[in-house]
Design brief:
Layout (H helix, E strand, L loop, with lengths): L9 H19 L9 H8 L6 H18 L3 H7 L15 H10 L1 H8 L1
Helix pairs in contact: 1-2, 3-5
């Protein structure tokens, strides 16, 4: 399964969460014919909710902070605007938009300050 971590759209988040649940079911040896719900599987693992996407967000935020603190080529590429005309269609999602969206959610703020 290939996951584009540069843009975390809703479908990507769903795929990551589904993959995590699939791994838990495989570890616990729960066959598909048992029809165990995701909540039941998480109770068996003793986890409140899916952790993989939270870990990905945390790693992306730490890397974003690392890039923003140093004056490097990566920072110029992330902040810089490319000269020229914009192509047709909707603009592509940027890393900074993902980070701004994550910082607005209360769950990420609580995890970042703890």
């Amino acid at each position: 399964m290939v996951v584009n971590l540069g843009q975390s759209q809703k479908c990507d988040v769903k795929k990551i969460n589904a993959f995590e649940m699939k791994c838990y079911r495989k570890i616990l040896r729960i066959p598909w014919c048992d029809r165990a719900t995701n909540e039941e599987v998480l109770e068996r693992v003793n986890i409140q909710n899916c952790q993989l996407m939270n870990n990905i967000r945390k790693l992306k935020l730490t890397y974003f902070g690392h890039v923003k603190r140093h004056n490097t080529l990566e920072k110029l590429c992330m902040e810089g605007m490319v000269e020229g005309k914009r192509g047709r269609g909707r603009p592509k999602r940027r890393w900074s938009e993902d980070v701004a969206g994550w910082l607005k959610t209360p769950a990420t703020r609580a995890g970042a300050t703890a």
